Amino acid sequence: MKILISGATGFIGRFLLDALLPKDHQIYALVRSIPDRRLGPDIIQLTCSTLNALDEQIDVFINLAGENIASRPWTEKRKKALFDSRVLLTNTIHKAFRYPPKCVISMSAVGFYGVAREDIFNEETPPKSGFSHELCAAWEEAAMAFSRAETRVTVLRLGVVLGVGGALEKMRLPFLCGLGGPIADGKQWFPWVHIDDVIKAIMLAMTDQAYAGAYNLVAPEQIQQKHFAKCFAAALKRPALLTTPKWALALIFGEMASLLTQGARVIPQRLEEQGFKFTFKQIDKALLDIEKRHSI
Fold first, then answer.
1. CB atoms closer than 10 angstroms to residue 92
2. Helix, strand or coil for residue 6?
């Protein structure tokens, strides 16, 4: 298959390339400038300006690009950067295709549902308002625009993706130092998914015509943040005693602190109805697996 990936050098992109390259696909990577030396010679590099010159139809476009939503406070400048790296870029890529791809697999996030503790969110549950919902909704709308050209579009609303690297790596040092623990009261929901299940879902959506529309890509086990903290500390053989107060997060992160203190309870209803089998259903086993890989 001919596969184009945006965000190929990111956390998910690196794992996806490891899965795709041995399978004799022709891989194209959308980059800001050529050459991007983080990519190997067997990957054809394109920019948005050169994509239009591609004189063949892409079988699958996998849209992973987007700046980290939780890396900095949500200033107005930061909100624009988050919007541009997702929505504007997706629209630009859409316009750049000479021939529409047969299939588009685009990322989104459980932030689509907004900030809420009480409700249980499947794919049909009305979301709460707020910046995270507005950003994800606009991103999904940009991806779904591909379907007007008879392209099959799958949108994956990701929970916190756990693997060697990514968000877990940023949390690793505080927990190793015994400084990890619950955030605020720890009762906020922590929708998560192992990187192996993310790659598995993407690979299935590439070929299975039944995958269309939006899916919650989160593990079926619904846990609160304090349970995650306990399991991560246990995997590292450390205590999880210290609590990060809500006021401190609000002081540091402003509006973005809601992502850490008000997580929604999200279930993978459509995936399970479609027969998707999660490799990692329990957080303790997922974290132990990742820690084992980290030590190799």
1. 14
2. strand
pLDDT tens across 223-274, in order? 999 999 999 999 999 988 888 887 767 776 677 777 778 889 999 999 999 9
Side chain identity at 129, as an amino acid letter? S
Cis peptide before 35 (omega within 30 of 0): yes
Per the structure block, which two tokens stand in for 115? 């900030």
Angle 229-235-239 from CA coordinates, rounded to 5°: 55
For 282, the token pair is 């329990």
- Domain borders along the chain are 2-294
Q: Which residues are within 8 A (CB) of 2 and not within 5 positions of it... i.e. 6 or more apart?
A: 25, 26, 28, 56, 57, 58, 59, 60
CATH architecture, range 2-294: 3-Layer(aba) Sandwich (3.40)
Whether this model's pTM surpasses 0.90: yes
Read off the amino acid at residue 96: A
Q: Are the C-beta atoms of 68 and 110 separated by less than 8 Å?
A: no
